[in-house]
User: Fold these one by one.
Assistant:
Number 1:
Amino acid sequence: MPELPEVETIVRKLSEHLPGKIIQSVSVQHPKSFLGSIELIKGKQVLGVSRRAKILRIHLPSETNILIHLKMTGQLIYTDATTRIGGGHPTADWVSELPSKHTRITAELSESSMLFFNDQRLFGWWKVLTDTQVAAEFAKLGLDIIDPSFSAEQLFTVFQRTAQPVKVALMDGSRVSGVGNIYACDALNLARINPWRPAKTLSRVESDRLYEAAKTVIYRGIELGGATIDDYRDVAGFAGQYQEKVLAYGREGSPCYNCGTPILKKKLAGRGTYFCPECQK
DNA sequence: TTAACTGTTGATAC
DNA sequence: AGTATCAACAGTTA
């Protein structure tokens, strides 16, 4: 899925629509997708929507929350009365056909609005948790790479502590959150660092360069509404734009923007890794 | 036809 | 403890 920019794009849109709405009913089409009690969220009014790492959080009263992870193929699609009238909230054509074969959860909200959770591969989930339980979940995560309280210093410390390839360390959510495969490949290309370099061999200068590069590509991803390689869609069902601006990811054989050398694709820790053999030595 | 691939991350086994 | 591999699943591509 959806890495940090994709989830952030969804959070920003849902924040315009959901607060104030009442969850009138929730129907679960696939039991594996929903953990916890529907009764705890039914009739509750949405207070807000936020994000930590790649996890979306719907805040409800009484210290109750819905955490949502889209994993590889999850989608959250929002519709309301203005969607159908064709007013201020246009949606992709296929959205009117929902629920679809891949719709796993359907929530009916007040004011004729709906929230659909589609997830082809069934890795994603909704969990109903208390504030305390949410805090426990989040405690396992490293800070977001774009969190203002994260720093170049902290990233360097993360790298110093492991001999794993720097790409693996960068993508390890228990150390630092939000960087998935697409943005990791692009950040390393922008910083001109080889993905296989043992993390602890990076100099402070290189680590800082990677930190800035990662933030650059992630902010670019947010500005462009995320990357749609295959399944990711925004809440209205439309594709993002970052895939058209990728630096390395998916660009096998195309010239590196740094030096013109064709981008290679190899496997690193089981993940497709795109890099430039010349400037990312 | 079959095998390998896919944006995630937890569990498991060294 | 740290790290590498696999598995969850369905669909697409080679």
Note: The radius of gyration of chain A is 20 Å.
Number 2:
Amino acid sequence: MRERTLTPTSYLVLGLVEQLGPCTSYDMKKLARSSIGMFWSFPHSQLYAEPARLLADGLLAEEREDGGRRRRLFRLTPDGARALADWRATPTEEIGEVRDEGLLKLFFSDTTDVEAIRTLAANQGKWHRERMNYLIELRAAYRGNATPAQLAVLELGLRWDRAAVDFWNELEVDPTSANRS
Amino acid sequence: MRERTLTPTSYLVLGLVEQLGPCTSYDMKKLARSSIGMFWSFPHSQLYAEPARLLADGLLAEEREDGGRRRRLFRLTPDGARALADWRATPTEEIGEVRDEGLLKLFFSDTTDVEAIRTLAANQGKWHRERMNYLIELRAAYRGNATPAQLAVLELGLRWDRAAVDFWNELEVDPTSANRS
DNA sequence: GTACGCATGTAAACGGTTACATGATTTG
DNA sequence: CAAATCATGTAACCGTTTACATGCGTAC
């Protein structure tokens, strides 16, 4: 077992299981949605598919509940814990990327159609404002029971959204400017 | 033809072809790398696979060079131009996401291992500083022959990298702080 | 003229998304 | 107790990635 190269999704699952202790896919889903979801989203089916692979790799172990729903509980194996530790100790040689369809549209926008750019900007700004508010609530709710590192990640999310709000707002005001900072 | 739902990659290719006029996959690659690559990266093989699909969809047309290498030149069909225009006119109902493995590592980092966080932060900061410098060069080179919208996208890239540089730097100085802004 | 890097392309395998499906809880 | 929503899971399709392959220019 364990011939394949693990993907970020693999470590995401391993990390979630480590934090939660024995847990179901649904537990992972809940935690992911209220924390790293913003940086690494995925449909919930991944949280069934990936644990199955990790099981085959010997990095997770599974036990089924006896009673009622006989849900599957996953937990880290020693190998799994080691894989996670190795990953943490390895410097990341890649830089992240911002995948934003709104920016794609802006990039390919028709320069002469000022109104379209304005509409796009207004719309994108709205989404970022909404998420910013959500993250602020989240931060208030988490203060205390999250690690400093997790709060830091949240904080960068907030800064990103604030930068985006400013950016789209400036563009809405003056769609032809290059927004020099 | 044209039953499938187009993906962002589809519009990326359509947009590139529109900007370039008749062009090869390699031309697209060059343009993409020096512009939107930072927001939407992909291996070059996508620039062969996707045009093939768009061809089947009737959104691109192809002609082969007569001489020498007989390269494939793609150009927009009227249907392709229309698809692009429709996309531009449709508001984006999704918000972009930041996929950054470094942030994943931070999120799952061992809070007690301050040194590991410091190393991660130093490393991530370095990447963002490097790309920031690259983007600054790019901006200087582009001033004049890029559209305002394209310069704006570049500008947001710069702001993002600057925010990331600050963030990782603060974290390197004080790995236990939550970096409140 | 040979070596190296740029340019061009293809194929297979795998991960991720979409869609479907249904048993359990809660709410009114 | 009916309806809605939460919780849990599977399967197929398709896009993306990885890997391989090789022709063409250019510099030395």
Note: The two ends of chain A are 52 Å apart (CA to CA).
